[in-house]
Amino acid sequence: MLIKTKMWLHKVPPVRLIVISFAIIIFVGACLLTLPLCMKDGQSTTFLDALFTAGSATCVTGLVLFDTYTHWTPVGQVIILALIQLGGLGLVTFTTGMSLLLRKKLGLRNLQLAVENTNGDSSDIGGLIRMILCFTFTCEGIGALLLMIRFLPMMGTHGIWVSIFLAVSAYCNAGFDILGSIMKDGNMIPFVSDPLVCLTIGGLIVIGGLGFVVISDIYHAKLQPALSHVQRHGLNFHSRVAIFMALLLIVLGTIIFFILENDNTLATLPDLGSKLNASLFQSISARTAGFASVDIAKEHDFTKIFTVILMFIGAAPGSTGGGIKTTTMLVLVCTVWSVMRGKDETTFLHRRIDKFTVYRALAITSTAMLLVLVVTGIITTADPRINGVDALFEATSAFGTVGLTAGVTPHLSDISRIAIIITMYIGRVGPISLGLAISLRRGHIHSDSVLPEGKINVG
Hints:
The chain is mostly helical. The chain has one domain (12-438). The chain has helices at 2-11, 14-33, 47-58, 68-71, 74-89, 91-101, 108-118, 125-155, 158-171, 195-210, 212-228, 237-261, 272-286, 301-313, 326-340, 355-382, 388-399, 414-429, 431-439, and strands at residues 346-348, 351-353. A two-stranded antiparallel ribbon has the order 1-2. Helix 2 packs antiparallel against helix 5. The longest helix has 31 residues, at 125-155.
């Protein structure tokens, strides 16, 4: 049996194995969360509710049916945190990285899986994964220590667990919290004016959302040469694009959120600094993390629609975040701009972007838009009391693995919950990866065939 399993694993394409691994983690996590010892009232959680929670944690989304602190015991919270860590790093990255740290030999099969899961360069994937794990645990550790400055005096020794949980959840862009002892379902609202908490969590979100390849490039191009006292060199094109888009969206989101909500959810804050702190935090969190320092349900509809756009874009490729990815959005914008100027090639920063990348960006975006619209339709049909804007918000939050909600998640019907679970899963593994995993067959690819050209008028 074991030999047959190994033979099957060697035949499965890497992209399909990654998709399957996430499904297995979710299922196992759901089974564990149904155990009575995971609930504070000693009862068993229904499998659908446990599946929703496990899916949200593994897909690092943050949509919850119950307040994590008041509903789940410490055992349940540990299981949820483990799912967040595995889902954020990716099961393949985690297991391969542990093998490397233990100095085990990395086979060709694991090498292919690691490249697929991290969007890395196969020439140094071993070094990349070592860096991913060491950097991840270092960032989470530093973040937890900073948060302890606030939570240890406030909560005593329990503040250690709260700090660790929030640091891991923030770095993995999950949005789960265990602050229910302060304010049930309040998330980050009690700390909206606290720069230490908001900037620490916001910093972890940004770092986790940049992507492992970008972090590796920053280290090798800037930090390592500085430590070795040798000349630093420039970042690669992908890293520059990812950093540019992250900064642009953070600044733009902060300004627009401040303008739209200054007379609404920000009106009760004491000073300009607190309002800017809240606006910055929401701009960072909206693209992938799902922490909320204001009441999302009370936001203006236009603010929700703007947040939907940020959630749909998401984080950088190869990161702990979701969405269509920032680089995908840039490719689309540059393509539209090039067509409007009558150019045949998509360009950015005096570089030509190949057509395959453009086609992939179009495929990802169109598939994602279709998925979000279908799920929005399912929610509005199954739950007529939920208005269209909130349904769109919920569907986009699930696809972007963000976790922000306008307060409708606990009130979803079973049909809507199943639709959200599927959407979170597709959003985490990627719509194109899922499609390839389903359709990919050995021996059915004929790349050398030539087809006659078909001309179609568009526009």
